[in-house]
Amino acid sequence: MATSDVRDILQISRPAPSAEGTPKKSTKPEKEKKPGLCYFDKEVTTATSNSYYVTFVDKGISRELFQLIGGAPPVAFTKPTYKQKPNLRLKAAHWELREFVHPGRTDQLALLRWTKDINSNITEDGLQEFQNLEVVQYTDEEYHKHLLDRDWTKEETDYLFDLYKRYDGRFMIIYDRYECPGKRRTMEDLKDRFYFVQRKIIQQRPGQDKAEIAKYNYDKNREVDRKRNLCMLFTRTPDQIKEEESLLEEYERIEQNEKKFAKEREALIKSLAFQDISTAVKRKRSMTNGSSAPATEIVTPVISVPASESLPKKSRRASASSVGTSAVVEAHPPVEHVRREKLPPGVIVRSQKIPQVKQGAITKVSKYLQEAGLGIRPSMPTENVCAKWIELQKAIVSLHDLKRHVEKQEHELKTKKQLLEKAKAATGGSSSNQNW
Amino acid sequence: MAATFGGYEVTALVLDVGTAWTRAGYAGEDCPKAVFPTHYGYLPEEESEDKASDNQAADTDVSNIKKPKGKYYIGDGEINLWRPNMEVKNPLNDGLVEDWDALEQIWDSALKSRLHVDPREHPLLVTEVAWNTREHREKLIELAFEKYETPAFYLAKNPVLTAYASGRPTAMILDCGAAVTSVTPVYDGFVLKKGIIKQPIAGDFINEQIRLQFEQLNLSPVPQYMVEKKNYVDPDLPANAILRNRPNTTASFHKYMLTKVIHEYKESVCQLYESNYNEQIISSRPMKTFEFPDGYNTSFGTIRFRAPEILFQPSSEFIIPSPEPTVDTSACVGIQHMIFNSLVTCDIDARPAMMSNLIVTGGSTLFPGFVDRLYHEVAPKVPGMKVRIHAPGNIMERKCSSWLGGSILASLGTFHQLWISRKEYQEHGKIIVEKKCD
C-alpha cells in the first residue's frame, strides 16, 4: 500500500514533494550497504532510523502521517520503485561481427560471431575440443608376428580399428555400422577381437606399461552368458514376472520367520543352560540336605521341554526345503499355526500344564480331591498321570456343576410347587365366591 | 540465453524440410522464425505448354536449375490462394526429396524471402530423415555449397535432433508425422541404423481414411476456396451457402484444399481411445460437433475414434479400402509393435535406457489420448522394463522438435568443430558428407 493511499483515507493534505523524495534517497543506500555480518551493524541501523526520524520531523510532515511512519521505520514501508528509465544519453554498446577459429579445427574455418567488446579477445568458453580416444595401434610387422587369426583378416581388423576410432569406442554403434561382406559378427566378437589385439600389443611391446593390460580384459564367454541371461529376463511374460515377484515375497517372509526362530531358539538354549547350572547347584544343595524328592520333580520336566520343541522344528525344516516351489504357499501357514501354540519360553513343569480350575471352584475341587485322598497336584506328574489328572479334574468340575444345577432345579421345583398350591387354593376360593 | 546452456552462437541457420511443414530460423532461438507448408503451388508459365514438356522440365539436370520453367508459389498465403491451373505438389516422398527444383525453391523462399539473409554469411544446418540415402545427402551438400555458397554446412538426422531437443543422448524416438511413422533408436547421439522401422501410416493416410469415411456417410465437404458466403443452418440440415464458380481448378489443388478441411476436422474432433478399443464404451463418450466451410454442421460419435485407431490397429477392421490405394498397408503393424520390433534389434544392454526414454514427436501424436494409449499398449509388451514416455506438452515443441534440436546443436560451442567447411568440401568433394555427418 502506497503512502498516498493512506493519505487519501485519512484525508491528509499532500506534503511537499521534496519532503518525500530527498530523505529516502539519502537513507536507502546506507541501509542497503548493510553488510549483515559485522558487529558494527546495530549501530549503523539505529543511526539510520534516527536520521529517518529526524528528517521527517524536520521536513514538517503532519502528525497523523508521522504517526503512521514514525519511530522505527515500519516494516512494510517500501520505497515505490518505478521502471528504470533507459539512459538514452549513454552511447550504445558496440557489437561487432568478429571472426574466430575453433581451436579444434584443422582447416582454419573462420566463423562469425557477434561480440560486444572489441578490445577483448573472443573468449573460448564453451569451445572445448573433443578428446580423441587413445588406441594402441599395431604395425604391419606386429600384426604378422602376433595377431594372426584364422577368423580375422588384417583388412577386417583394420576396419574394426577405424570404426573404433571413428565412434570413440562406442561398441553399440560400431556393431550397428559394421558391415563386412560374408561375415556376421556379434558385438562380443568385435569386442573380443579388439581387446585381444590391445592386450597382445601391450604385452609384446617393450615400452608399454604392462599394468594397462588390465584395462583391456575381456571374457567373451562370460559376456555371452550374461547377455543370454539378460535376454531370458527380457522375454519373460507378465505372468512369469508376477509369479517370480510373489515367490520372492514369500521367500523374504520365510527368511524373516527363520530369523525369528533362530533368535527364539537361541534365547531358549541360553535360558536352558542357565537352568542347567542352577539345577545342578540345587541338586548339590539338596543332596547335602538328604531329601531327593523335590530334585526329581524339577529335573524330569527339563528333559521334556526340548521334546515338545521338536515338532515346530521339523515342520520348519520341511518348509525351508520346499522354497522355490509352489508348495511353499501351502506349506507356510502350518508354520505359523504351530508357532501360535508355542509354549512360553523358559522351563515349565509338566504339572503346570494342567489347566487351572475356575477360581470359584478351586476349594470345592480340592475338597473332592481330599475326599479321594489326593493332593492339589499329582505327586508323580508323568504324562499318563497328568492326562488322568486332567480327566479327573474335569469330571470333578462337571460333577460339581451338575450337583449345583440339580440343587437349583430342586429348589425351583419346590418354590413352583408352593406357588401352584397357593394358586390352587386361591382359585378354589374365587370359584366358591362366584358360587355365592 | 546463450550463456545458460554453454552455447556459443555463430549466427547459424537451421532448416528443417518435413513432408508437411518447412521450418527455418536462427540457431539458438526457441522456435523457428518461419514455418510454412512444404507443399507448393506450381503454375506453368505458358498455358499452351502441354504436360509432356512440363515433365521434361522437371527432369532436366540439376545444373540447369537457374531458370525454372514455371512459377512457384510457396507459403501459406500463396498456396491457399486459388489460381486457375495451379497445381499443388509436394517435393518429398517417403521423407526423401524427389523434386530437387522445388526443394531449391523452398530453400530460396525460406532463406531469402522469409529470413532475409544472405546464405553466404551463415553456416547452415539442414535436417534429414534417418533413412536418407547417400545420393540425397550428396545432393544436399552440393546445393548448399554450390548454389548458396554457405561458409559451413552440416546435415543432422531428425531423431538425433529430437533426442537433443529433449536433452537425452540415448532415446527411442517415435516420430509420427505427415507421411511416415518411424521408430528410431538413438544411442549416445548416433542413430542405430539397424533399428530404424518406418511405415507409411501417418497423418496423410489418416486424412485419406477420413475422406473415405465421409464418403461412406455421404458427406461431401466443400473446401473453403469454393465458398463465397455461408449462412447458418441448424445441425444436420443441408448447407445453405453461395458457392463460387472456379473454372480450371486443378485436381491437385482441390485435393489439397479438401485435405485442409479434413485436417481441421481431424485436429478438432478425432481422438484416440485411451485403452483397448471398445465401441460400446466409446459410444457413451460425448459427441463432437464440427462445422464444415459451407456451414453444414453435424456431430460425430464413435466414428471420430475410428480413424486414429489405425495407428495402433492397421487392420481391415478400421481401414477402409481405397479405390486407388496410395500406400500398401498389408505389411503395416501398430505403433506398439514397431517400437517393440525396433527395441529387439538393440543390444540388450541398451534396451532399458531406450524404454525409459521413449520420446514422442510429430504432429500426428497430438491426438488427445495418444500418449495414454501408447503407454497402455507398450508397457505390457516389455513387462520387465520401466516405460517412460516423454511427450512435450507444448504443441510447437512436438511439431518442431527436430528443428529445435538443430537450434540447440548449432549453437553449442563444441559443435563448431563438426561443421563441414567450404574448404573441406573443396578438398574432398561431396563424399565428405558421409564421413563427417553421421
TrEMBL record, chain A:
Q: Which family does it belong to?
A: Belongs to the SWC4 family.
- Show the InterPro entries listed in the entry: DAMP1_SANT-like, DMAP1, Homeodomain-like_sf, SANT/Myb, Swc4/Dmap1
> In its keyword annotation, does this UniProt entry include Transcription regulation?
yes
Q: Name one GO cellular component term.
A: NuA4 histone acetyltransferase complex
Q: Does the keyword Metal-binding apply?
A: no
Could you tell me which residues belong to the region Disordered? 1-34, 413-436
UniProt-listed PANTHER family: DNA METHYLTRANSFERASE 1-ASSOCIATED PROTEIN 1, DNA METHYLTRANSFERASE 1-ASSOCIATED PROTEIN 1 FAMILY MEMBER
Q: What SMART domains would the database entry show?
A: SANT
List residues of the Myb-like domain: 148-200
An example GO BP is:
negative regulation of transcription by RNA polymerase II
Species of origin: Paraglomus brasilianum
Which Pfam families does the annotation name? DMAP1, SANT_DAMP1_like
Q: Where is the composition biased (Basic and acidic residues)?
A: 413-424
Lineage of this protein's species?
Eukaryota, Fungi, Fungi incertae sedis, Mucoromycota, Glomeromycotina
- This protein is called what? SWR1-complex protein 4
From TrEMBL, chain B:
Species the sequence originates in: Paraglomus brasilianum
UniProt name for this protein: 8358_t:CDS:1
* Lineage: superkingdom: Eukaryota
Output the InterPro entries linked to this UniProt entry.
Actin, ATPase_NBD
Looking at the Swiss-Prot or TrEMBL record, what is one Pfam family this protein matches?
Actin
Annotated signal sequence range: none
Which CDD domains does the entry link to? ASKHA_NBD_Arp4_ACTL6-like
PANTHER family for the chain: ACTIN (PTHR11937)
Q: Which family does it belong to?
A: Belongs to the actin family.
Q: Which Gene3D superfamilies match?
A: 3.30.420.40, Actin, Chain A, domain 4 (3.90.640.10)
